[in-house]
Design goal:
The complex is a heterodimer of chains A (about 350) and B (about 425). With about 350 residues, chain A is mostly helical. Chain A has helices at about 1-25, 35-45, 55-90, 100-115, 115-120, 125-145, 150-175, 180-190, 200, 205-215, 220-225, 230-235, 240-260, 265-280, 285-305, 315-340. Chain B folds into two domains: about 5-240, Rossmann fold; about 270-420, Rossmann fold (3-Layer(aba) Sandwich). Chain B has helices spanning about 45-50, 75-80, 95-100, 115-130, 145-155, 175-190, 200-205, 225-230, 230-240, 280-290, 305-310, 325-340, 355-360, 385-395, 400-410, 415-420, and strands at about 5-15, 20-25, 25-30, 35, 60-65, 65-70, 80-85, 160-165, 195, 210-215, 220-225, 240-245, 255, 270-275, 295-300, 315-320, 340-345, 365-370, 400. In chain B, the strands form four sheets. In chain B, strands 7-8-9-4-10-11 form a six-stranded mixed beta sheet, with helices on both faces. In chain B, strand 15 (about 295-300), helix 11 and strand 16 (about 315-320) form a beta-alpha-beta unit. Classes of the chains: A mainly alpha (about 350), B alpha/beta (about 425).
Chain lengths: ~350, ~425
């Protein structure tokens, strides 16, 4: 049984590779898959393979590949963040964007951009994004550890309130700032992947990848949360400490992802939920599978946005919102009607 | 090293000035099965939470194996003490085997996967609780009882010397409840110790080696079940009137709440019950419940009916065990029967020892003879004179079975008819 579930992971990686090639190939200038494969194989050290012509190479290396990398990184990070938050709060409706962590990161990034700190040092953008995400995560932590029983919807509603507040602040800051640009406004409220270069991807990478790895190392603890906090404590887990660590790392990972792409919604909600139905709730498998699944989902959404109505692009944030919102609504209605049984859970 | 596995020294737990646990000092040895009993809000669950360390005491100290509980690293502690909370739901659909393996958490490093021996322990525990083959079933699709058993198996997988159980059987049926407690009892024979908060005093008395009766955060008393389960301890703690007896078939201690009279309304008719051999128990309870004034007798000492009348403080006449009813007994009884608006002769066997009761019944102002119902044994006679005297009596009185009498009591016809006849 477990072997079958691991196969899901391998299959996903395979599909992901295919979509990577498709993604690099599509766009205003078509690049044949063979050229892409040549570049990729050359890239992984097989130097004997001849590289495609200069223009194709340039498009692949400097335009398409960084964008593909950005999509995969952001998708993986947001999906893992969603898994962590759902596991932590034992709440299938939680995710970084629903609980306001994403908008917190956006707010930080916008402050970095409008105050000019970003111009002083590029590191200020991811740094402030992380700080914004951490502030939102702290608020959620305080709300959720408020004495008494917190219902599933209570945490979600509190998150939506936090999210709206930060969203309002983002809009206000952008509207009043002197270098007000429509494109900036759209980017930091809707999210997108257009124009993402290597610098956008590489800057957060040294922290993002270790962050995701650490989340994975906490998968056994995330499982223990399922028993309830008292039982988890009796089994020897530092419940509050673990909660704070996981929330903080989720905030860091989310903040970094959003510093790349702006706030992209619903990946963190949709993906964990989808794969939990497929392979079960064990976080040791759910986290890696969701990471690959999230990468795949965002890459496909971006590809869809690019090829749907050429020569125009639909922003990836719009695609995920269009796919995700109805799903979220459907979850809430099912929860209202059947309680948790509606999720196939108890 | 003392024998005590865990010991509390004057621990206190307060929330906002209110002491939920108030200077409790208890100790538990290996091989003991300690039941924490007491009414809702007495502090049973809080005490368990303090013992496991989920809550820190606001005063006093807890010693686990003679070391302060706080000095243990959480994982170290989890290898010594396991806790079964009242929470039995999970949000996500984990297979049973995954839940069981969570019990190995205190033994596994962050980078270690469960070994084959961990799996073996999980399977053995599952078989022990009688759920062999449930490994891949989803925990949240099981019944409440099965879930409780799985969680019990999970703490067995934890392999601790001390097990703390918080009302482990509150949603189990009697079979699972008994199974659960006998499994916990088995553990104490392996020199483990079990401390369980228990609501059901009867099951606690059967399995626990010691009971601790809690009252408003303090220990009211502790000791063997038969020492603790006494009305003089229980009544003030539970704020009700209890009756503690031994079940005559199983020998188990049975704690019940005494039936209570429905108070008020107009003065109720007086009914005299002639019983014996337990034949009057149902009728007595029913009449008490309905608020009738009752007297009883003549019954023999140690007779079940007599004991009930005694505990309910019903005026009754008693004669020596296994002796014949004497004329002196009868003379006293006549006054009771003559005062009663109605006398009921219950369906008990009649022989030389209690023949006098037939004579007593003859003095009744109004007599109802209860006959055996359709699913009951018919009345037995152990002497020829008993049979003939009874027939004579039956010829001039009303006869009905218990069910019919209850119907008449319910509708109120029983005494309406009587008044008319008298008038």
């Amino acid at each position: 049984m477990r072997r079958g579930k691991t196969a899901v992971l391998l299959l996903l990686i395979l599909i992901l590779l295919v979509v990577v090639v498709l993604s690099i190939g599509s766009g205003a200038v078509r690049v044949p898959p063979l050229s892409i494969l040549r570049v990729l194989l050359h890239g992984i050290g097989i130097r004997s393979i001849e590289l495609p012509p200069e223009m194709q190479l340039s498009i692949i290396l400097h335009i398409r590949l960084p964008r593909v990398m950005a999509a995969m990184l952001v998708g993986a990070a947001l999906a893992m963040g969603g898994v962590a938050m759902q596991g932590l709060f034992r709440n299938p409706m939680a995710s970084p964007d629903i609980l306001g962590v994403s908008t917190g990161a956006s707010l930080g990034a916008v402050i970095a951009v409008t105050t000019g700190l970003f111009a002083v040092n590029v590191f200020f953008l991811p740094l402030l994004a992380i700080i914004g995400a951490l502030i939102a995560a702290t608020l959620i932590y305080l709300v959720s550890s408020y004495k008494g029983k917190t219902s599933l919807l209570f945490v979600v509603l509190a998150g939506l309130a936090i999210s709206s507040l930060f969203n309002g602040l983002v809009s206000a800051i952008l509207l009043f700032s002197q270098q007000y640009e429509v494109s900036q406004f759209i980017f930091w409220t809707m999210g997108g992947l257009e124009g993402r270069m290597w610098k956008h991807v590489l800057l957060p990478l040294p922290l993002l990848v270790p962050g995701m790895a650490v989340l994975f190392l906490f998968s056994r603890e995330l499982n223990l949360f399922a028993l309830g906090e008292e039982s988890a404590h009796s089994l020897g887990m530092h419940v509050e400490r673990t909660k704070r660590i996981i929330l903080a790392i989720t905030a860091v990972v989310t903040g970094l992802a959003i510093s790349i792409s702006g706030p992209i919604g619903f990946v963190g909600l949709l993906i964990p939920h989808l794969f939990r139905m497929l392979i079960g709730p064990d976080h040791r498998l759910l986290l890696p599978v969701s990471a690959v699944g999230g990468a795949l989902f965002l890459l496909m959404s971006d590809l869809l946005g690019r090829i749907l109505i050429p020569p125009f692009e639909i922003r990836v944030g719009i695609i995920t919102a269009v796919l995700g919102s109805p799903y979220f609504l459907y979850l809430i209605i099912r929860y209202q009607r059947k309680g948790l049984r509606g999720f196939g859970y108890d | 090293m003392t024998e005590n596995l865990i010991e509390t020294r004057g621990i206190t737990y307060s929330v906002a000035e209110k002491r939920i646990i108030d200077r409790i000092s208890i100790s538990v040895k290996r091989g003991e099965f300690v039941g924490l009993v007491g009414p809702n809000g007495a502090g049973k669950t809080t005490l368990l939470r303090l013992l496991i360390g989920v809550l820190p005491p606001t005063g006093g100290e807890i010693l686990l194996e003679d070391r302060r509980l706080q000095e243990f690293r959480l994982r170290e502690r989890a290898r010594r003490v396991a806790y079964l909370s009242q929470e039995t739901t999970t949000v996500f659909p984990y297979p049973v085997l995954d839940i069981l393996l969570m019990g190995r958490y205190p033994f596994l490093g962050r980078f270690r996967r469960e070994s084959e021996s961990d799996l073996e322990k999980a399977r053995r525990a599952l078989a022990y609780v009688g759920l062999r083959g449930f490994e891949e079933r989803y925990f949240n699709e099981l019944s409440g009882g099965e879930r409780q058993l799985v969680l019990f198996a999970k703490i067995l997988v934890q392999e601790t010397e001390l097990l703390l159980l918080d009302e482990p059987t509150s949603n189990l049926d009697i079979k699972h409840q008994d199974q659960f407690f006998s499994m916990a009892f088995e553990l104490t024979r392996e020199k483990k110790a079990v401390v369980a908060a228990v609501h059901n005093l009867n099951i606690a008395s059967q399995y626990c080696s010691r009971l601790i009766l809690l009252h408003r955060g303090r220990v009211a008393t502790e000791g063997k079940p038969e020492e603790v389960l006494r009305s003089d301890w229980l009544d003030p703690v539970y704020e009700t009137k209890t009756v503690v007896t031994r079940n005559t078939s199983t020998g188990a201690l049975v704690v019940d709440v005494a039936p209570r009279t429905r108070a008020g309304r107009q003065p109720m008719p007086l009914i005299h019950i002639i019983g014996g051999a337990g034949s009057a128990i149902n009728l007595t309870r029913e009449l008490v419940r309905r608020g009738y004034r009752i007297s009883g007798g003549i019954a023999h000492e140690y007779d079940a009916d007599q004991k009930l009348w005694q505990t309910l403080e019903i005026p009754s006449l008693v004669t020596g065990a296994f002796s014949h009813i004497t004329t002196k007994d009868l003379e006293k009884a006549y006054t009771l029967v003559e005062e009663a608006d109605l006398t009921v002769l219950c369906s008990f066997p009649i022989g030389p020892g209690n023949e006098g009761n037939l004579e007593l019944a003859g003095h009744a102002r109004r007599l109802v003879i209860l006959e055996a119902g359709p699913r009951e044994e018919p009345r037995l006679f152990f002497s020829p004179s008993a049979r003939s005297d009874f027939s004579a009596l039956a010829a001039k009185s009303e006869q009905m079975d218990y069910g019919r009498l209850c119907e008449l009591l319910e509708s109120g016809e029983l005494f309406r008819g009587a008044r008319k006849r008298r008038g």
